[in-house]
């Protein structure tokens, strides 16, 4: 068998599109021995995210409900890419947020098929409510947690702070030190989840950016049928599901206390059984592939006197340190678990029975618990099994993606060596790698605060029509508004041609006086901040997509309440603030619910959306504002699909249905129109209640257009009636620019041909798809004209 395996490897090309051999994969000809494998395998050169996707592709799950978040986003992207070439049949469902994606996965798993997902950090936190539901109802699935720091403050790099929130959710958790382990654990995870003794959802955890994006040589099954033979066909016999009409069931019924505690006990029993089942599966997998993952990865622990405990990517680095110390005559060893739920308590206690001291590195802090979760569980293991002599040192390290080097490993061992010599630990718990800062290097203010006198110019005249109640606005020539200072300083890191800031600054020209802005996570926030630097001249707040509107509504109501109590009299306020929430990059998908809630409460604030037609801040995935047929990184173009399959969300109409005072659309291509609407938005937010506005913002990078084409692209979008300019003021719809009346209307194809992301729509084979898109654009434009003609609508 080995000869045939080696000959197969030698024939693998750099790019392998062979469906039988696993699809779209990078591969390298390695002549080294495959090992004791009993199944034909191949070498590839890929990242952890790619290997998670490849394992899912080989298993061919039924459903993946997903939402993009760095650094796990690529998993769905790779699956979409391979689906466009027909390499799997997974139904990929883009959700409106991670909470929703978890619900999709839960619902799909009740229906008896195989379910897959991937997420990170805040995405996992948003799912958290759903995690015990999945495990408590004993419904198997597999989810990859690509570990990342959790906010706040915002950091997108890898540590285990999100992972530690998963420890109490009832999911067995497998750990991955490198891309090879990501592939292997994903295959074993499904078998573990579906084992009759377990029947629990399983999490596969890898380190964000350390493992998820770094390419390594990986060995995989050559043939999908061998994967399926190992994991077993599905659905497993005897698994109840909601699609069996002969055996109707109730999933998640209400339980009183005697039954609930029994449910928890049974789940606990299943979790502890998962440890033994994993060991059995790991041995079977090792026998098949030559790669064995014991419960604990013990390196030179047979006679170790000092040791270090680390998880995932850092656990490989520490092995080099162990070898270096062994060369110096120091009996060093390392421990890294391959599974942390159930926690391998007895195995750890046994491995440490002769160890004098161990340093435990936690890449996440259990704040207030005198150590991270792993050190406290390791201490419990020692105490439970009668070991009162091994000294334990706790260090929190690597937060926010801080690198872990060999010299850091030497420091951890030195702590253990000193404790072993003295018999006591000088500092049981501390952070490692932090610094107090230097007082003489405190960041100084580089931007002078904006002066109220410069902001409240009085150049824009506003009065109210007593008959209709609508506002009359007179805007001076745009050159007159140049004297108003910019609220954002140049120097942000936006891509060339980005339309966000030209649109924002134009809108802000219509706002008089002081503003407080809240920025959702997204391009506008990320490229304009980066501690200790900022492009914001005024006060700004950040919060996540799903809660920005609620957060700003709290600020608004606190302002008005403190003003009512007279607590702000000493702050020199010459006028009321205007509160603006800036959202985009799909923020009105995941943030739609809170935005509607804020609208229904009618807080005095403005929600301003820059619509760049995708989740551009995470790599141009489709959002609900992406138009039908448009290419994104999760709506690819290939033989099985031609871009996004559904029409774009009409957010202004949704918000207008909440009966807020003012709704508008605008673009930088029509500056007078946008400034006039901004002035109305300012007045209504000061006097009446909530305002919503949408600005179409070009994203040349991801629209695949020229950097200098932004203004012309959005102008053509307006002239083609794809993005009509209108307002809904006190419930009355008014078109503010009609290209038909001005004889400026162009065919929708004129807009599409200016962007690389849509040129496939102009091909003859996509005629039906193009017509569907055109018909929807015309339908919405026709309805808008009818509303314009009939104010009662």
UniProtKB/TrEMBL annotation:
Chain ranges of the Thiamine pyrophosphate enzyme TPP-binding domain:
576-681
Composition skew (Polar residues), residue ranges: 626-644
Its signal peptide is none
Sequence ranges assigned to domain Pyruvate:ferredoxin oxidoreductase core in this UniProt record? 304-408
Which stretches are transmembrane? none
Could you cite one Gene Ontology molecular function of this protein?
thiamine pyrophosphate binding
Output one GO BP term.
response to oxidative stress
Against SUPFAM superfamilies, the record matches this protein to: Thiamin diphosphate-binding fold (THDP-binding), TK C-terminal domain-like
Q: What is its EC number?
A: 1.2.7.1
UniProt keyword annotations, A-Z: 4Fe-4S, Electron transport, Iron, Iron-sulfur, Metal-binding, Oxidoreductase, Pyruvate, Transport
Q: Where is this region: Disordered?
A: 626-651
Q: Which InterPro entries match?
A: PFOR_II, Pyruvate:ferred/Flavod_OxRd, Pyrv_Fd/Flavodoxin_OxRdtase_N, THDP-binding, TPP_enzyme_TPP-bd, Transketo_C/PFOR_II
Pfam families hit by this protein: PFOR_II, POR_N, TPP_enzyme_C
Q: Does the keyword Ligase apply?
A: no
- Residues of the Pyruvate flavodoxin/ferredoxin oxidoreductase pyrimidine binding domain: 55-281
Enzyme class, top EC level, equals oxidoreductase
Name the family the entry cites: Belongs to the pyruvate:ferredoxin/flavodoxin oxidoreductase family.
What protein name does the entry list? Pyruvate ferredoxin oxidoreductase alpha subunit
């Amino acid at each position: 068998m080995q000869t045939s395996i080696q000959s197969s490897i030698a024939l693998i090309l750099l790019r392998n599109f062979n469906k039988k051999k696993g699809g779209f994969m990078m591969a390298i000809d390695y002549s080294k021995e495959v090992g004791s494998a009993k199944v034909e395998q191949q070498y590839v050169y890929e990242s952890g995210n790619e290997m998670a996707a490849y394992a899912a592709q080989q298993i061919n799950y039924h459903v993946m409900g997903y939402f993009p978040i760095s650094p796990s986003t690529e998993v769905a992207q790779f699956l979409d890419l391979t689906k466009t070439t027909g390499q799997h049949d997974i139904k990929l469902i883009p959700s409106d947020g991670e909470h929703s994606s978890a619900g999709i996965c839960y619902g799909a798993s009740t229906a008896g098929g195989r379910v897959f997902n991937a997420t990170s950090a805040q995405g996992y936190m948003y799912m958290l409510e759903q995690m015990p539901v999945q495990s408590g109802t004993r419904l198997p699935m597999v989810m990859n947690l690509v570990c990342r720091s959790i906010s706040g403050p915002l950091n997108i790099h890898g540590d285990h702070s999100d992972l530690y929130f998963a420890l109490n959710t009832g999911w067995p958790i497998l750990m991955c030190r490198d891309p090879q382990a990501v592939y292997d654990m994903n295959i074993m995870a499904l078998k573990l989840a579906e084992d009759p003794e377990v029947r629990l959802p399983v999490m596969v955890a890898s380190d964000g950016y350390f493992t998820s994006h770094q390419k390594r040589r990986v060995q995989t099954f050559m043939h999908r049928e061998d994967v399926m033979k190992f994991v077993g066909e599905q659905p497993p016999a005897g698994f109840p599901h909601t699609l069996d009409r002969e055996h109707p069931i109730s999933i998640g019924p209400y339980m009183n206390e005697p039954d609930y505690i029994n449910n928890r006990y049974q789940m606990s029993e299943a979790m502890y059984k998962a440890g033994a089942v994993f060991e059995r599966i790991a041995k079977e997998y090792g026998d098949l592939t030559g790669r064995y993952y014991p419960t604990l990865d013990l390196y030179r622990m047979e006679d170790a006197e000092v040791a270090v405990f680390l998880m995932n990517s850092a656990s490989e680095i520490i092995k080099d340190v162990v070898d270096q110390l062994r060369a110096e005559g120091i009996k060093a060893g390392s421990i890294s678990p391959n599974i942390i739920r159930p926690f391998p308590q007895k195995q750890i206690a046994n491995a440490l029975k002769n160890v004098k001291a161990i340093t435990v590195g936690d890449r996440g802090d259990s704040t207030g618990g005198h150590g991270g979760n792993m050190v406290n569980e390791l201490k419990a293991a020692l105490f439970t099994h009668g070991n009162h002599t091994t000294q334990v040192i706790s260090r929190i390290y690597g937060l926010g993606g801080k690198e872990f080097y060999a010299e850091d490993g030497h420091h951890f061992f030195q702590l253990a060596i000193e404790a072993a010599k003295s018999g006591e630990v000088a500092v049981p718990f501390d952070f490692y790698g932090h610094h107090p800062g230097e007082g003489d290097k405190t960041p100084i203010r580089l931007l002078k605060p904006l002066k109220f006198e410069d902001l409240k110019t009085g150049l824009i005249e506003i009065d109210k029509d007593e008959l209709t109640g609508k506002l009359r606005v007179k805007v001076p020539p745009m050159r007159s508004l140049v004297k108003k200072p910019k609220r954002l300083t140049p120097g942000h890191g936006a891509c060339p041609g980005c339309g966000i800031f030209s649109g924002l600054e134009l809108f802000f020209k219509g706002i008089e006086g002081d503003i407080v802005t809240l920025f959702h996570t997204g391009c506008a926030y990320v490229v304009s901040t980066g501690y200790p630097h900022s492009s914001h001249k005024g006060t700004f707040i950040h919060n996540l997509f799903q809660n920005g509107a609620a957060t700003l509504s709290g600020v608004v109501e606190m302002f008005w309440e403190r003003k009512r109590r007279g607590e702000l009299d000493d702050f020199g306020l010459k006028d009321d603030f205007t509160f603006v929430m800036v959202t985009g990059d799909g923020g009105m998908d995941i943030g739609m619910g809170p935005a509607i809630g804020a609208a229904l409460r009618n807080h005095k604030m403005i929600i301003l959306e820059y619509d760049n037609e995708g989740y551009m801040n995470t790599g141009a995935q489709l959002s609900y504002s992406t138009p039908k047929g448009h290419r994104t990184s999760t709506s690819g173009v290939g033989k099985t699909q031609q871009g996004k399959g559904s029409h774009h969300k009409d957010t202004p109409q949704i918000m207008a249905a909440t009966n807020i005072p003012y709704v508008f659309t605008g673009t930088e291509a029509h500056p007078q129109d946008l400034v006039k609407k901004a002035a109305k938005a300012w007045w209504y937010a000061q006097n009446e209640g909530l305002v919503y506005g949408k600005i179409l913002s070009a994203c040349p990078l991801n629209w695949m257009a020229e950097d200098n084409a932004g203004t012309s692209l959005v102008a053509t979008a307006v002239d083609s009636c794809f993005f009509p300019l209108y307002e809904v003021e006190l419930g009355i719809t008014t078109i503010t620019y009609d290209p038909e009346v001005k004889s400026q209307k162009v065919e929708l194809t004129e807009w599409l041909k200016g962007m690389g992301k849509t040129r496939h729509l102009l091909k003859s084979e996509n005629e039906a798809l193009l017509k569907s898109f055109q018909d929807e654009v015309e339908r919405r434009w026709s309805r808008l004209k009818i509303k314009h003609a009939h104010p009662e609508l």
